[in-house]
Specification:
The protein is an alpha+beta fold. Helices cover about 35% and strands about 35% of the residues.
């Protein structure tokens, strides 16, 4: 089993030869990009310590480099998932609040001075509680909705990866007082 930084695991013995070749090519390309970015950062560090410039190392240039490395790693992980599964699975979780009749009255929570809360459709503030019975006394039931979607990988003109073509695979509602951020 091979595990990616996203937590996705795949078994190479179940893949075809073409899939393994594509994965190896993706990894090699990503390693080359990461090596180039690291070389750029090393050059900036050398220039900084040699007093050739005093602004590009450790500042915004280093932050931009770290973001570029993150994009490369994310793109590699997404590309491998797409090779293995044929799509990229995305799991999203959110809180909703329903009244006792089962009607959705609030979606998502907000952060306030005294903690997390819901705002219902008619403007009522409902504090996030730890006990289900407290919600029920107020006439509500909290849910956590887990949505699994599949997307495809695309690249923009700067060769940065992004996801497109979201399609819902499944949606699960469960009664829970857990607050999803």
């Amino acid at each position: 089993m091979t595990k990616l930084s996203t937590g996705f695991e795949y078994n190479e013995s179940t893949l075809t030869k073409e899939q393994i070749e594509r994965i190896n090519a993706i990894k090699a390309n990503s390693e080359n990009q990461l090596a180039r970015l690291q070389a750029d950062e090393d050059r900036r560090a050398d220039n900084y310590y040699d007093c050739l410039d005093d602004y590009s190392y450790g500042g915004l240039c280093s932050k931009a480099n770290a973001q570029a490395q993150g994009r490369v790693i994310a793109g590699m992980n997404w590309a491998i998932q797409e090779v293995v599964l044929g799509y990229i699975p995305l799991v999203k979780r959110r809180n909703i609040l329903k009244d006792l009749n089962g009607n959705i009255v609030a979606t998502g929570t907000h952060e306030g001075k005294f903690g997390r809360f819901f705002v219902t459709d008619n403007g009522v503030f409902v504090s996030c509680r730890t006990k289900l019975s407290t919600y029920e006394k107020k006439g509500y039931i909290p849910y956590v909705v887990t949505t699994t979607e599949k997307a495809t990988l695309k690249y923009n003109r700067d060769n940065h990866p992004y996801l497109k073509g979201y399609e819902v695979i499944s949606e699960l509602e469960e009664v829970s007082t857990e607050i999803v951020y």
